[in-house]
Amino acid sequence: MILSLVRARYLAWFRYRRRWTRLMTTARLTRTTDDGTIRVPRLLSVRIGETTDRVRVRMLDGHCPADYENRTTQLADTFGVHGCDAALIGPGTVEIVLHQQDSPEIAALSNDLDDVA
Questions:
Q1: pTM, rounded to two decimals
Q2: Spatial distance between the Cα atoms of 116 and 25, rounded to a whole number of angstroms
């Protein structure tokens, strides 16, 4: 149990927290103010799962959920994952679901298709 908590904290830092500003800039989800300050969406929480990670983000003023939903392919590429979904989960809060690897169902389907071919 303790090892899984340590693993989750390490992966949250390694995958997301340590390079959050750069990743949000690459995904074009930052804003530059008139004085040149770069504003970055706030990373609220990270939940590490077996095949998916859930990242909760506070949107910047002027952002809407569609800004994240329309960038799911770019976010997946930016984070180096297989797929990505984004949805509004509360006022000004978006949850980004990052698929680190194929789910068991997709892997089974892929194996079935290989058998047919």
A1: 0.80
A2: 43
